Amino acid sequence: MNKAQTEITIPHLFRCPISLDLLEDPVTLTTGQTYDRSSIEKWISAGNFTCPVTMQKLHDLSFVPNHTLRHLIDQWLQLGAQFEPSSNNSATIDYLASLKHTLESHDSTLETKLKSLEKISVLSDEYCSFRKSCFQQLSFLPLLLELVFGLSDSQLSENHMEFVEIALSCILKLLPIVNLEPLNIIKDESKLERFIFLFEKGTSSIKTSLCLVIDHSTATAQTEEVCEVLGNSQKLVHEIVQVVFNKNYDKVSEAAIKALSALCSLESNKESLVKGGAINGIITYISRCENRQKNLAPLAMATMKKLLVLESGKEALVNHVNGIETLVKMVFKVCNQECSESAVEILSIVCSDFGSAREVAIGAGVLSQLLFLLQSQCGTKTKTKARMLLKLLRSKWNEESMQL
């Protein structure tokens, strides 16, 4: 790297996690993490057989070149010098305007538009307040949303799906830095249909991005109606739940949990979520990540708790073949007190109303789990709730015994 290049602030994604230098020959491990080839080869040759970032054991030491990232870095190196904060602001606006024109033009080929999107993706990665204002002033978000959700069925070829992936990536980078009002475009019936279609037919990357768009829809009162429209679409809710059921514990299932949590923030969406199988999806997610320390189980359980204000939500939990047992297993989680507290709260809700839930919980060992929890170093709040659940189970048990 020459002196001019080193003076440019390197985006985080373009740095090797080992050397912290610009990736020159990026390669990706089976864990999905990318490193510079020379750095990871030295790491492995030194007898380290784990992924440096995730610390997962590497059963397969092979890696593949990350051509997409290599291309983006090349683009960034070509553009970086002309977009330093000290550069002429007018030139920056002109360049971004030219990229926008390429995207808008009916004469531009798909390949040309893809290249423009890649450049926009690189430029939106760098934290320059002036550039953020440029994206806002040039209305990039409305344009990108129209390009993604305005596509017709005939346009959705494999290459167009690549276009959608990159465009959604750009949208997600812009959402935290621009006005979110343009998201209201999704309220339009045809745009909503396209949103659902992309969720049904899209890649895991597209599904993940769409879930995160939903998550952003609750960030401001301006987009509350969008959240309501999305949450009341039974078809969409069903698709999100199917993503949660994904057997692979990956980013897409986590994004789906975030989407369900976001939709659950509106009371008007809760019935739709229950009907769409959200409770079943959450139980499946929790049971799958039971032994993982880093997961969204606390968020998933908080979402479930919100849905239990509905009688249908309680019934969905009680009627699930593994619902109560899954929650009982979460009661004593030393590594995650938040999960323990939520599990105790949820069990208190359903055990108070359903004798069958009490019977299953006791059979699954909830009493010993609660006693272990009370003897642990968990917080006072959690212990208080655990005592209340024990008291509830004991009193209900006595009542039922007397009736017999």
TrEMBL record:
Gene3D superfamilies recorded: Leucine-rich Repeat Variant (1.25.10.10), Zinc/RING finger domain, C3HC4 (zinc finger) (3.30.40.10)
List the source organism: Medicago truncatula (Barrel medic)
Which residue ranges does UniProt annotate as crossing the membrane?
none
Question: Where do the U-box domain residues begin and end?
Answer: 9-83
Which EC number(s) does the record attach to this protein? 2.3.2.27
The GO molecular function terms of this record are: ubiquitin protein ligase activity
- The molecule here is called U-box domain-containing protein
Please give the superkingdom of this protein's source. Eukaryota
Keyword Electron transport in the entry? The reply is: no
Q: Which UniProt keywords apply?
A: Transferase, Ubl conjugation pathway
What is this enzyme's catalytic activity, as reactions?
S-ubiquitinyl-[E2 ubiquitin-conjugating enzyme]-L-cysteine + [acceptor protein]-L-lysine = [E2 ubiquitin-conjugating enzyme]-L-cysteine + N(6)-ubiquitinyl-[acceptor protein]-L-lysine
Q: In which pathway does it act?
A: Protein modification; protein ubiquitination
Q: Which InterPro entries match?
A: ARM-like, ARM-type_fold, ARM_PUB, PUB22/23/24-like, RING-Ubox_PUB, Ubox_domain, Znf_RING/FYVE/PHD
